[in-house]
Specification:
With about 800 residues, this protein is of the alpha/beta class. The chain is built from 26 helices and 39 strands. The N and C termini lie far apart (about 90 Å).
Length: about 800
């Protein structure tokens, strides 16, 4: 593929490599307004994409389009010629030309090597067998995704950053994963043995097996992978093997061109090579004896090189303090600086085996020399700032292990030096964020991400970014804390705390203590919801505080009549139910009987005073089509009848509806359950969706099909129906507890982020999951079918409504005139 637009002809800059480091350097070059005709050559067939998030492709959480950093239009807009799928095979430094694999020769005035690195592959026999993969490119990730599903036995060779990210991604698809590592502990370049032990325990809790001190010798199988063999120890079965044993710089082209090479392409502090017109940046570079494999230092190199190559030579690159973070949901690990034990340093350490927290700091001459954090990485920004600024921490000794997190009110983000790195993935500093705010008018997190790309990597710096925005932008409200209404002038979080701590159990009590004693149609329904949520039914239910629909358990129509929708769990009914519906419709002369889009039958035009008798005659549970609660679980026939069905979606849908019905939620909830990926019940555009696969279920959340369509995000892939139902329950209760009142699930998912949601639901500890489910089930036990309650109690809510003309006549009659 070739993309070209408006090429200048003065100086020809050729860039070999279309990866993150090379294109980021070109972005910096463009800021200097150079007179270059730029051509970029890329081996792959994709525009520049975010390699940090490749594991999310394997897990099915993102698509290739989601990873794109610079689309084809970006190249056109900047007049850059892009040659995708074009491998450069030779560089002639003397003639100043390069030769592509198709034989085309391209002259250059300046050449930039951004060739990156390749997977380091140990000497293992059988790598050619089907089912053996490396994990480096988007194509690698897509190939892995195609082979990974529930029941597959996957072996990952390599227990470093990339290996563990691959392992967690495979495990989230339902694979049974084993990590094989040659050294005696995981991530030996990033954490010490004690920290690695905590990491290994956490992986084991997540269901990932770890084998240490094993040297892999062969991948065994006839044609395809069947097992992995070791120099010592028994082989283990495998259907899929991933090699993630590190990387090595791509230096072959530079070496052939006569450019000085050691482990990487040798560069000075200006990123110049041994040839005056040839430069290098990224993982292929060796600077002061160091080859960097993380993105942040490569972006720093790109800024220096951009100045050098455009004739603005001045800034120098002196090296980077390496900060490493494991980007695996549910596993928090980071380290930076010199963290290995040193007789000249003081060791400060904290451990809590029950919580899985390990912290290690090394202090040298009153300054932080390095740190390791496992299980709790909230202090990383403060530690990294101390490390980079070489600040004296003597006065902080009493708070070394527990300094207030950056995002908390107890610590002002102003304490961070302007040169402090906020986003370690993409090398975004505090000064970059402040510049975006003050010079480019950024005032929301979305705008900040677009302008600087901060928090678009692993997302762990989001809280710090929000804190900086809040400090620098007076009206920043990424998560609004506006008061509920004039009757009750408190924010939602404050009110929830008040209800719980003050043991308030009725709407009127809250209004009397904290409000105006009266309330309105804004605060009263919200308080009703929160009381029900917090006390799980152990509260005083004031029906008058609910919306009209909730008060009378039916959906009011524009003519003042009501709509009645009986519940048909999973869309399944019986001939007896259909007869009762038909008889009831005839008896009460229902004007319209309609099949809904949710696989139920709607009786429209029923008078208010007839509602209790209609429910009694129907003898069916309320479908709650009027409430902020579970509306329905739409289903296909699944494996019960369909020849394409691979899962019993009917039974799963019916059971899920039983578990979740009659529970209030922040907004209405619609669920879909399908027995195969053909998705006949549109599960991927529902608040919660269960999608049957061969041997597994995908549970997806946050879908929408209203004014805007949003495809649901993958929550988890599980093997059994019970596990899928439990995952849906966990998300349902988490949304109940953390969603803002009147916030749909798709807005909730975007606001919270899937990494956080997974971490606190399906990837949470067993104790956390047990507590979530216990609260859900307690609330469900207390819940009652509102129709059955209404027809067994005398209730003034269902007296006939007076015609509007009578009310108007009364209002027009003089006060002293007797009523006729």
């Amino acid at each position: 593929m070739i993309v070209a637009a408006g090429l200048a002809t003065r100086q020809r800059l050729l860039v070999i490599g279309n990866g993150m480091a090379g294109v980021a350097c070109v972005e910096q070059i463009l800021k200097h307004r150079p007179r270059f005709a730029i051509t970029i050559f890329g081996d792959e067939h994709y525009p520049n994409y975010n390699r940090i998030l490749l594991s999310s492709i394997v897990a099915g959480e993102r698509t290739p389009e989601d990873l794109t950093l610079n689309g084809v239009d970006w190249y056109r807009r900047h007049g850059i010629e892009l040659r995708l799928g074009t491998r450069v095979v030779d560089v002639d430094a003397a003639a100043k030309t390069i030769t592509a694999a198709d034989g085309a020769v391209h002259p250059f005035d300046a050449l930039l090597f951004a060739t990156g690195s390749s997977p380091a592959v140990p000497p293992i026999s059988g790598l050619q067998r089907e089912g053996a993969f490396v994990f480096r490119t988007l194509e690698d990730a897509q190939a892995l995704r195609a082979h990974a599903h529930a029941g597959v036995q996957a072996v990952v060779i390599g227990g470093g950053l990339l290996g563990l990210e691959a392992a967690r991604a495979l495990q989230s698809t339902g694979c049974q994963v084993t990590v094989v590592h040659l050294p005696e502990h995981l991530m030996e370049r990033c954490v010490d043995a004690a920290g690695a032990a905590y990491l290994q325990t956490r992986l084991w809790q997540l269901g990932i097996r770890v084998l240490l001190g094993r040297r892999t010798t062969a991948i065994v199988g006839e044609g395809r992978v069947r097992a992995v063999a070791f120099a010592d120890g028994d082989p283990i079965p495998a259907d899929l093997v991933v090699i993630a044993a590190g990387i090595r710089p791509n230096v072959t082209l530079a070496q052939g061109a006569g450019v000085a090479v050691n482990r990487g392409i040798l560069v000075n502090d200006y990123l110049e090579t041994s040839h005056p017109d040839i430069f290098a940046v990224g993982e292929c570079v060796e600077h002061r004896g160091v080859c960097y494999g993380l993105l942040a230092p490569l972006l720093e190199q790109g800024k220096v090189l951009a100045a050098t190559i455009t004739g603005n030579k001045g800034p120098v690159y002196t090296g980077t303090t390496i900060a490493t973070s494991l980007k695996v949901t549910g596993v928090d690990v980071c380290s930076a600086g010199q963290w290995t034990d040193d007789p000249d340093s003081e060791l400060v350490r904290y451990e809590d085996p029950a919580l899985g927290i390990y912290k290690k700091l090394l202090i040298r001459e009153g300054r932080l020399a390095g740190f390791v954090l496992v299980g709790d990485t909230a202090d990383q920004p403060r530690y990294l700032a101390w490390l980079q600024s070489r600040a004296d921490v003597t006065r902080e000794r009493t708070r070394l292990l527990f300094p207030p997190p950056v995002a908390d009110a107890g610590m002002e983000v102003a304490d961070l030096p302007e040169g402090a790195t906020v986003c370690g993935c993409l090398g975004v500093k505090k000064s970059d964020i402040l510049s975006a705010i003050h010079e480019h008018g950024v005032h929301t997190l979305a705008q900040l991400r677009e302008q600087t790309r901060a928090s678009t990597g692993c997302g762990s710096c989001t809280a710090v970014c929000q804190a900086l925005l809040k400090a620098a932008v007076p009206d920043f409200e990424e998560r609004p804390d506006k008061v509920l209404c004039g009757c009750l002038p408190y924010a939602e979080d404050e009110l929830r705390t008040m209800l719980q701590t003050q043991q308030l159990r009725s709407v009127q009590d809250v209004l009397e203590v904290y409000g105006n004693g009266i309330g309105c149609d804004v605060c009263k329904p919200a308080l009703s919801y929160w009381l029900d949520l917090i006390w799980c039914g152990d509260h005083h239910e004031d029906r008058s505080a609910r919306f009209i629909n909730d008060r009378v358990h039916a959906n009011i129509q524009k003519d003042g009549t009501f709509s009645v929708v009986p519940r048909m769990r999973g869309g399944v009914t019986t001939p007896q139910e259909l007869r009762r519906i038909a008889d009831t419709a005839e008896k009460f002369q229902v004007p319209l009987v309609k099949i809904t889009g949710s696989q139920r039958i709607d009786l429209l035009g029923i008078k208010k005073e007839d509602l209790p008798q209609v429910w009694a005659d129907l003898g069916m549970p309320s479908g709650e089509a009027y409430a902020k609660s579970l509306r329905m679980v739409k289903s296909c026939v699944g494996s019960t009848f369909c020849r394409f069905g691979v899962q019993d979606s009917l039974s799963a849908a019916t059971e899920l509806e039983h578990r979740l019905e009659h529970l209030y939620t922040p907004h209405k909830v619609k669920i879909g359950c399908v027995g195969c990926p053909r998705n006949c019940a549109e599960a991927t555009v529902k608040d919660i969706g269960l999608v049957g696969q061969e041997g597994s279920w995908q549970v997806v959340v946050g879908g929408a099909a209203g004014k805007s369509v949003r495809k649901a995000d993958l929550l988890v892939t599980v093997e059994t129906t019970e596990a899928a139902l439990e995952a849906a329950e966990l998300f349902f209760q988490y949304y109940r507890e953390h969603g803002h009142y009147m916030e749909r699930s798709y807005d909730f998912v975007v606001r919270c982020g899937m990494d956080k949601i997974r971490k606190e639901t399906v990837y949470a500890s067993d104790a956390v999951k047990t507590q979530l489910l216990a609260r859900l089930r307690k609330a469900r036990e207390k819940a009652r079918d509102p129709w059955q309650v209404a027809i067994t109690t005398a209730d003034p809510r269902f007296v006939p409504l007076r015609p509007m003309e009578e009310i108007a006549h009364d209002e027009a009659r003089p006060v002293d005139q007797p009523e006729v």
